[in-house]
Write the structure tokens for this entry.
Amino acid sequence: MSAVISMSLLRTQGIEHFNRKDYLSALACIEEYLHAYPDDHEILNLNARVLDSLGRAEEALNRVDRCLQVKPNNVNDLCNRATLLSRLVRREEALSCLEQILAMEPGRVDILIKQAQLLHHVGQRENALQCAQQAVRTAPSDLTALNMRGMILDDMERREEALADFLAILKVDPNYADAITNRGIIHGRNGEFRNALACYDQSLSIKPHQDNAVYNRAVVRLVLGDWLRGFVEFESRWKLFPHEAQRLSRLAPRWTGRQDLSGKTILLHHEQGYGDTLQFSRYAGLVKGLGAQVILAVPAGLKKLMQTLPGSPQIVSEGEPVPPHDYHCPLMSLPLAFGTTPSSVPAPIPYLRADPAAVAIWRERLNARTRPRIGVVWSGRQFPPINRARDMSLRTVRMLFSLEADFVCLHTDIAPDERSELAAIPNVSWLGQELKDFADTAALIENLDLVISVDSAVAHLAGALGKPVWLMNRYASCWRWLLERTDSPWYPTMRLFRQKTLGDWTGVVRDVLGEAKAFIGRAACGTVARYSRGDTGSKLPQDIIVILQEALDQHNRGQLVAAIATYNRVLTFDPRQFDALHYLGVALAQSGRCQEALVPLTKALEHQPNNAVVRNHYGNALAGLGRFGEAIESYERASQCNGELADSHYNCGVAWTALGRQQVALECYSKAIALDPHYAQAHNNLGSILADLGEPAEALLAYQRAIDAKPLFADPLLIWECMRKRWKAMSARSRSIPLTPKHTGMQDSSSSLTATSRPGGACMSTDGTSRVSSSSEDLRTNRHGPASNPSTERLS
């Protein structure tokens, strides 16, 4: 009798522990009880729910299967089995469970919605839509069914119908947060980002804890350039992928930018695609500069190329053991750690390099160059939610091949029909089968004059190599390309060609075609020296003045690639022309090609060794190469040549800061301010150093002066506000002030150039569930369904 009472007590205690969410204690009681009573269906079900709550889905599934042995065809057990199979990404089996339930209970709307969701996940969009429509017909007032149908219609690019479903929901329930979020997604897909932001704000005011809406708002903030807030909210991505977050939890503690890395080892690791890894690997050198030993984990196809990164981080790839480390940080969290804004992007181009031996092999493989050689990419790696908006067909891009140029298809693989179509075009080569990894592709790109690509890893690679690259960009742009810009802060040699209307690739290709004709024409001009003159003292011929002014105009508009080509045209006529040499060096340095910039700047200094502005720009090129000691010498020489040049003192301060000599930098910024009291960047950097030195009152004053000098100067506005709010909580020596971003860019002495010899320088939301917006490929698109998100739904 006592044994029976003991087992009954265990049963009761297990239920009570579960209700109190003490799952480990519940599990101990339940499993002991089931040894004596293995066929108690209620406790078997509870056992599955406990295991599920502990994240042990496989074991929970075994318990549900045991439930079905005790009670075959139990609908509740079949529902739980479908949920667990979905969570384990065994979707076909989950669909089979749902079919069994519908065979027994054909009119169950919740099961129809789950079926629509799963069919949607496996790419059967038409079948998914039929299920959703059946659910709506069965229960026209069921808002969850309408929401699911709207989601599927949106993914099928039937956005007007999708929007009608969401608006129908909001007529019934204006506070239906998921429909508001989904409406925001459609605005985002249509490039209406401010309307999308308003929807996310409204949805989150009604239902604050929506990870999907927070993530979607982050992406919109990023595309609008609000990176300080955007990158903070971008961290919500880990909540959308709990399995990924769980994997990361097994690594060392996360580095957020606040912990001291001196003498520590940090693991930086990729989390998404090749392009993201190529883009954000630039931060490895900055992390090393904080005193850390850096381990960089990358996809296998990038391992060889990443070994060329500055600072020589230790590179590991899939399948290799992760070395011991003190901290870890995902690559796409580094902009947050460094406080990156659009005006402070680290762009030390090139930061990746091709192997010279491999470049030479490809040079021989391609034979002699007789006309411009252009690489082309019209689609990226296949991932359907992104491909539909980002990619175009070979047929659409084919008009480019009418140009007088040789084209190289940079795809590593193309469809059989495209291969046969390319084979019929005489000036196009496809060498993809010879490209084993990205190091091979880099070596091939180094033999090209220009790369034209959709938003793909190849575009990032060309940009990281410092090659001219033209990006054909979709209308609802990925956040990293911002809005309305034709250039990119990430890649100085990149030019953007945007769709003017949604889906209009033909217009983009026409724009590229027109500019490419001009590019080819300039290249042709540069190969023939029609005029040569060694006397730099005589008056310039009018045709050279016109070309030089064209270069300066291009330079002022930020068209660096075009300006560089045009300066070189001038130098073809007159290799000693001072302005062309000077500003060619400036443009090359601004493009990140600092080593190349030293050549024309050195020649310019041979003509005018005491020109302070050229000395200043020469120092900028040296600083861009990390040669800060030599840069400081050049800035000091510039100050000797012209004691009134505030830029040389400012840049000297930036270089001393890079060397960790804050007190000396402080003096330099003070000298720059003495010469130019309205020098906003100098006030800003002065404030950052004062805050670092534990002088918050003086720092606040410096930030205020930066704001007064330049009211829209974003960095001090944000930092000043942070410091003001934390004023009372700060100790006199506090180092927790959010000091980044600093304005650390080298300063030119003029904002425009003139000739001649001028001195100067979505995730759709559902009831408790989410899927990630495909307006950005920042994450693998999360396709969770409406009423039954398997990552959040609890077993019943």
User: Anything to note?
Assistant: Residues 612 and 638 are 4 Å apart (CA to CA).
